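FAQ: What does a ligand-bound record look like?

Like this one, built around H79:
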Amino acid sequence: VRRTECGFFDMLCNRYSSEVIMAAANLKERISWWEEVRFGMFIHWGLYAVPAGVWKGEEIPGIGEWIMYRAQIPVDQYEQLAPKFNPVKFDAKEWVGLAKEAGMKYLVITAKHHDGFALFKSKVSDYNIVDATPYSKDPMKDLAKACKSAGIKLCFYYSQDQDWHEPGGRGNTWDFGPLSDKAFARYLENKVKPQLEELLTQYGPIGLIWFDTPGIITKKQSQDLKRYVHKIQPDCLVSGRVGHDVGDYGSMGDNMIPAGRVKGYWETPATLNDTWGFKKNDKNWKSTKELLILLVDLASKGVNYLLNVGPTDKGVIPPASVKRLKEIGAWMKVNGDAIYRTNPSPYPYEFKWGRITCKPGKMYLHLYDWPKGSFLLKGLKTAVFKAYPLADKKRKLDVTQTYDGKLKEHSLQIGSFGKKTDKFVSVVVLELDGDPKVD
Ligand code: H79
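The answer part, i.e. the structure of the complex:
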């Protein structure tokens, strides 16, 4: 029911041209695959994986893919990383297989990050993996093939605003000085658009383009880029960070969790440790339980979770990441019904004990800790037929529902739960007489 209300749609209808309105009109259809899957893999991979957080023997603080900026590395020095980038261990099937095993249904890889280096074959600039590295192959070709056979949507991250390799891109003032609007407009025409065309014509259908960090880009230019993408692939989604709220869906800040459920289409990009691009000394991994809580928390609020891995320059996803993703996958195998194709919680607030997701006629209680005694939920007006753990469907849980007329309060009590069903987050299903209604 909530899904019929689309704030973006109203906004677009009021504000934009008929062409964009047409695109928005079928947004519901175009975006339904993305909204249903809830969980995707982000991959930050590029030349920054060579220094991996250390420049000239010095640990550079902050996120790994920002090393060029943070250490103010001149273009001619940073370019010297390309001959050292040789990912001989890269195996597209293995990466895509890991995403699939984790229960992720789309994959977004950095085709070009802020450093301006293209991780795909490009005629526009020879600063690309095929022409500038000893690897001299196009990994996107293999990824496209592997994604297709695994049923995972391939998507590209493309930094449209910052490009530290070009005088016309934003960010590199140490080589190029201040940036003019004219130079930026030329860069959009001469690099961004033709490279987008390559990305949208060389690898089959693309799920979405993940633009990032709008800064200097004008609203007209953001709209123009979105239109440009849709002209080549009408079904391809455009991330909110194309700028000025013109994207097909909204993007939360990096690693941001909203306080309650949100309206419309949203996604949170998030890290496993404290970096996106590989840093050899970042060992600050979140635990599998923390990661599952984030997934559940976001799903309960109607937000997609785009979880990042940062492979090494050899093409290896760090073992600590692999381990966590496999554990998440084992959980998803049992509990995926409580994530995929779900609606957010009917309650506008959070609970201490966990989170709720819904489907027509069903409510899923995601319990962070298995209740020792009985469990009380207030406010649910809909009758419950049946309750059982998702991991043990045969186990019937005792449910009592009461209504206190004086206090006007609905209560639902679950008696004892029996043995804990999952070491991370346990899901209990409530089968309901209709869609959940709450006070
Ligand atoms: O691709 C990932 C990041 O590289 C990108 N978005 C995610 C998905 C991103 N670009 N910018 N930011 C995130 C914000 C970055 C801010 C900082 Fe900095 C970079 C803080 C520290 C380094 C710029 C330089 C602001 C302070 C110093």
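Follow-up question: can I read anything off the structure? Yes, for example: Confidence is low (pLDDT under 50) at residues 1-17.
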